Amino acid sequence: MITRRFVVLGLGCTALAACDDPRELGAALDEGEFGNPTAHNHLVQTGQMPYVIDLAERFAEEVPTTVNFAFDSAALNGEAQSILRRQAHWINQFPEVTFRVFGHTDLVGSAAYNHQLGLRRARAVVNFLARHGVSRARLEALVSHGDTQPLIFTQARERQNRRTVTEVSGFQQRHPTVLNGQYARIIHREYVESAVRERPDPYR
After folding, report:
1. Does any domain span residue 142?
2. CA angle 111, 39, 54 (to 5 degrees)
3. CA nearest to 120, candidates 101, 137, 99
4. 197 lies in a domain?
5. In the chain, how many domains are there?
6. From CA 116, how far away is CA 134, in angstroms rounded?
7. Tens digit of each residue's pLDDT (9 = 90 or more) over 99-132
8. What is the pLDDT of residues 155-175, one digit of tens each?
């Protein structure tokens, strides 16, 4: 089970070695594109942070958060598309929640090239999720960590490092449920897959 050593919104584990689970939930504090310090402070001050953490744990437990890529590619293969369809289905059950996609590469190539490749991978995931019903307004931003956060430290090609990670980032502040402060109701909502069962055929 994922521990609470991470903090979402890109704060993540302070060091990869401190994580108990290979699935990452967040990354090093990003002082740039996402405005993470401000967003984090807002969640803490409004009492949302515990609910965001709980929902991030639930998302990571119920669907795969990571997809992998071929070398020097941002194309989504069949396995990646299958995972992203599951992500989209889950995300669509929680219209109050926002998400972020982080792109990564292996250590082959220059830092500048890998940054762009990671961004292409993140964009490919966002585009796929959007085609499967997820509003782009709920995919808050894209970021590329390039080759700065490998899961496996090797200069060789490594598939596990060529990945994107989808994460819970917070709540849509204008959604009625959020405005009413009903975060627990969101967290404990039944996932549709667990509720949809085949009805018995009375004529069998």
Report:
1. yes
2. 95
3. 101
4. no
5. 1
6. 24
7. 999 999 999 999 999 999 999 999 999 999 999 9
8. 888 899 999 999 998 876 665
